[in-house]
């Protein structure tokens, strides 16, 4: 809301501040002495807790890093059955961004095929390897994933550790081992970053026998590469015994000791990976910490303020009057960027007469700014936002600038011709990129914007609505993008309003009709199931297809009502097919994210099933993979409850997202539906990759006892391929398009 300042109110505040200041000085003199001891005790407790928390966070980071590398190799091993497949798979896997120097494919005879990711090479025969690596490879051939202890590679001239996972064939026999050599300097970097965040502690990563894997930036634990922590001069025999006992028990421990008249506390945290431990050492006394110094400074400051309180109150009163106008200024601007806030911008926009002059309003955004903020950090992103505002100073065409949301800006500009607007946008983007050239940002920064040229009928609200509407309709792209509010957009907006004005009446009038598309069992060629889709039959005889209304319904929330309505109709259809045709055809129905994540979803469909007396095992609830990947934790409980009701669950459009394997491993499903784009690819090279992926995914699903369904089967060649890879069910126009219920019954029953 807008901020307004009243001088009378300011004076009242000043009087209150004066009284409060006097009282505060009197109270402060009594509190300053009694609070010292309690603050000191609190600071001591806080400091110890901070050290302990930091130690745990470092341990978690190291564990996540190790397990991440291990899982990366495990995923790669699923698709790698020989060395040629390894070379083929590596470009398609996200291993180039990992910390592996070399990926190795080890045969049972001890020979190895290596693929170097960093340019270094190591010994490629088992007999030439360090003993630590040999032990890890042997464990992998015995069926266990293993991580070697650190060793020095004479061929690579660096300290490494090697992660090994078994490779199994379709009969679950181990046929080879996949290894990844990792430079230990990566662990050093993790500890270095931790030490930079918290200089009061020193960190070291050791094995269960005390051998040092990596250490931080300080010298207390600095040793030669092959050193052992038990050789550190810090530790006497008693401390060594306590440390060894902690390592053997593999339990978190705190060990206190004195060295050179200084008190130290050593925290031992097991990583729970490969018998490794993180040891952190407090190397500063409480009295040497910045917090303690700040405490003393605060006490002296408060004492000084006690003496100067009255003078300060008078000075404060004078300066706060001068700050009155400054407050008005700050109420209109974002301090970070110096651009108008939305309240000031609307006020300025409302003062413009669009009947006399034409202007252009641009809504300017940064693509995936929240992700950029996670990767680059808040400080860098703040500099980006400031740079955007600074860059506007080079364009006299920009009249007003406003930051309205975290990453959105409004720009009011003078040009109104599309060519001039387009040139201004890309010149502005180019200027921002030049100003940002000094920043080290790993991700490309992509800008997208919408604009609307004012008309005589516009006001500030309608103009803002136009640019916001265009942005909501813009398709996601990773190139700089500018779109206008034009006649086409206006017609689209009218269409959306028309749809929204009719949708509830259409539901009452049963205008949403169920269509069934047959699902064919590949081995027998019989119809064993069907997928339900919806079409909107309007009173004038025209049909609106889902692509035209589903996104609108998901945006306004009406999809919840429609999905429950369709679920009710499916229950009736399944019941009628059982009674009239004595058939048990399973019908699958897609459920939107808005409905699935509602707390009352399970209760609602339970009521519908009971009301219709339908056999729930004849209904399959389809969940889009993209929904599952984004809401994995919420959906796990939901899917379990769906299974409890007796319904089946299918994962739809599998392979269209980026977390397929993760979703498949965590959510219990009955049916896996491959995205139709796998079969519809026309490029021969991509088609070959797609077929290879489908083959492995079918084998993976079979190993989990999950039925597979291939959508998009449109040719006999598609069908023959699906038979070859032993896919269970096919669906597509090669067999039939979606049919009205009556036509489906007439044709197939």
Top keywords for this entry?
8-stranded mixed barrel; 48% helix; 6-stranded antiparallel beta sheet; alpha+beta; 749 residues; disordered N terminus
Detailed description of the structure:
The protein is α+β, with helices and mostly antiparallel strands and 749 residues long. The strands form four sheets. Strands 17-18-20-21-22-23-24-25 form an eight-stranded mixed beta barrel, surrounded by four helices. Strands 1, 2, 3, 4, 5 and 6 form a six-stranded antiparallel beta sheet that branches. A five-stranded antiparallel beta sheet has the order 8-7-11-10-9, with helices on both faces. A hairpin with a 4-residue loop joins strand 7 and strand 8. Helix 1 runs antiparallel to helix 4. The chain is globular and about 95 Å long.
Write the layout of secondary structure elements.
Elements: H1 7-78, H2 83-89, E1 100-106, E2 112-116, H3 131-141, E3 146-147, E4 151-153, E5 158-168, E6 174-183, H4 185-197, E7 201-207, E8 212-215, H5 237-249, E9 253-259, E10 262-270, E11 276-282, H6 290-330, H7 342-350, E12 360-366, H8 369-376, H9 378-391, E13 398-403, E14 408-413, H10 418-435, E15 447-453, H11 460-473, E16 481-484, H12 487-508, E17 512-521, E18 527-537, E19 543-544, H13 546-556, H14 559-581, E20 586-590, H15 593-596, H16 601-612, E21 619-624, H17 625-630, H18 632-644, E22 648-654, H19 660-666, E23 671-674, H20 677-680, H21 684-703, E24 707-711, H22 716-724, E25 729-731, E26 739-740, H23 741-748
Helix pairs in contact: 1-4, 1-6, 8-9, 9-10, 14-16
